[in-house]
Amino acid sequence: MKTFNVYKHYAFGYQAVKIGFSWPGFLFSVIWLFIKKLWVHAFILICGIVLLTSIEIYFNNVETSVMVIIIEFGIYIIVGLNGNKWYMNNLKEHGFELLATVKANNPASAIQQVVNT
């Protein structure tokens, strides 16, 4: 079972966010950030990727390519570690109120637990 924070907005309903590492954030960083409407984070990530790719193209050697891959992997780990926190903060900034923290198998079950209480 995973731990979720369940939020409610008067117009947009409920959202459940898992506490901890975000595998979708790690594996699909830019797409995940856009889906979660974390525009600033997505823009910064895209700029970083473009910068690293430009450096790799400019130097065009194996050492630089390996360094860029390691840095990009580190960036994806940062998104995985912090993505859910960023998403929770974004929900709060947009008027969502934290209702409860519950243990559930998935977000839908977490919301159902809160609604039923």
What would your notes on this structure say?
The protein has one domain. Helix content is 64%, strand content 19%. The chain has helices at residues 23-27, 29-35, 39-59, 62-93, 107-116; strands spanning 2-9, 13-18, 97-104. Strand 1 (2-9) and strand 2 form a beta hairpin. Helix 2 runs antiparallel to helix 3 and helix 3 runs antiparallel to helix 4 (62-93). The two termini are 19 Å apart.
Give the total of beta strands: 3
Radius of gyration: 17 Å
Average pLDDT taken over every residue:
96
Low-confidence stretches: none
Strand content: 15-25%
Major beta sheet summary:
3 strands, antiparallel
Oligomeric state, counting identical vs distinct chains: single chain
Q: With helices defined by DSSP (H or I, 4 residues minimum), what is the helix count?
A: 5
**Helix amount:** 55-70%
Q: In whole angstroms, how far apart are the ends?
A: 19 Å
Question: Which structural class best describes the helix and strand composition?
Answer: alpha+beta
User: How many domain regions?
Assistant: 1
**Strand neighbour order, sheet with most strands:** 2-1-3
- Listing every helix as H and every strand as E from the N terminus to the C terminus, the arrangement reads EEHHHHEH
